[in-house]
């Protein structure tokens, strides 16, 4: 079969993919073989000039996916040479146990900073970076969602709209945060995806007038309905898993770009422990009875440029 395919004008690699698709046993499996073995490499190599992009008839819709965006130059990404110089100074002079604790990006992050992110494997970790969300500021996710929402299908890398009918309440509109998975959050399960949505859902129900005493029970009931829905537990979950599977930014060990909250740091000779405390949203104009929605702990042990998240 392979020889015949080569004889028909295909390259050896193309012939191998074609034979694998033919022998895959089902149209769906064959489509996967062709998509990832033939179409994906061609699009990655040629970008918008790929014949597959032209053949799709969706050149305009796909154009943003071949555009380089500078999302936020007022952070490390905007100061690559300065970062390299600073990390080189720390590394050359054996200055260890360096942890930066910052904010201003309206998100929670925990990860490491390497000497050279352009190097193979992303370089060597030199210090730890911890970032705290703000108590009252809108989230980084909300800003980026608004911008990406004007750019067509590429907005799916950031958010996914959900309209949920709730008995006695009406339709509750949510925007599922996919930005975290695009940026490198761990592959979700249906339960972790539901948990990620919990704070936003609670706030949306409160905004619809659900009394504080009924909020948690209503949230649980809505989550149970979402879990039973294949639109959520199969389609949306599959999309989040695919985005996480891109493997972006492996040095980020924790991120939550849609949060309000604060960070409590405890420093001892042996370790630094940072508790990222995300808060629930207001109930009308009043503080929620349960202020803390979730706590994520980042631990940095003395002598290691690494962070463990729990």
From TrEMBL:
InterPro entries: PhoD-like_MPP, PhoD-like_sf, Phospholipid_Metab_Enz. Gene3D superfamilies: PhoD-like phosphatase. It comes from the Bacteria. Residues 69-145 form the PhoD-like phosphatase metallophosphatase domain. PANTHER family: ALKALINE PHOSPHATASE FAMILY PROTEIN (AFU_ORTHOLOGUE AFUA_5G03860), PHOSPHATASE, PUTATIVE (AFU_ORTHOLOGUE AFUA_6G08710)-RELATED. This is Phosphodiesterase. It comes from Janthinobacterium violaceinigrum.
